[in-house]
Design a protein that fits this description.
Strand content: under 5%
Order of helices and strands: HHHHHHH
Largest sheet: none
Helix content: over 70%
Radius of gyration: 16 Å
Number of helices: 7
Structural class: mainly alpha
Distance between the termini: 29 Å
Shape: globular
Number of strands: 0
Length: about 180
Amino acid sequence: FTSLFLCLIAYYNFYYNNSNLKNINIYIYSFVFINGIASFLYHWYGWYFFKLFDEFTMVLPLWLSISEIMYILNYKNYKIVGITLFNVLFLIFDVFMWFDFIFPILFGLEFLTIIYFYKKAIKSYPDKNNDGIKGIIICSSAGFIWFTTEFLCNKYLIFGHSLWHIGIGLGIHNLTNYF
């Protein structure tokens, strides 16, 4: 049920934090809300369709976020096209079952680029409320837990996956407030 926490984070930002929402954040939180439902359905039923629904709604907001950050930091268009190509291929390959073991690696590596972009952004955009660094720490911790539970899934680590759902929701909230 912790995946539904993502829906609460999105709901909060839509209705109580909406003065901070830029257009891109509306899309990101829409995906976060949908991912909460998709993840719940995947964990409840275990169907392959819901697995893809869950993973697509993880990749898409990350892709949008990175593209927007690159745009804000004045990256050249061809670099934004490059990250777009990577993510389109990522989604295409994700439909193949033999890709399952690669998904956590690629998603984790792409997520780590947020740290790189934060370091670049902090030079021009001060992190006045420390939202960015809090988001990085929370997301990185949750990401480490997720990565570990994806590869070492067993009855003892099931609680760790719940921490992923809660941590990623809170971390995204902080990161979107900064960026």
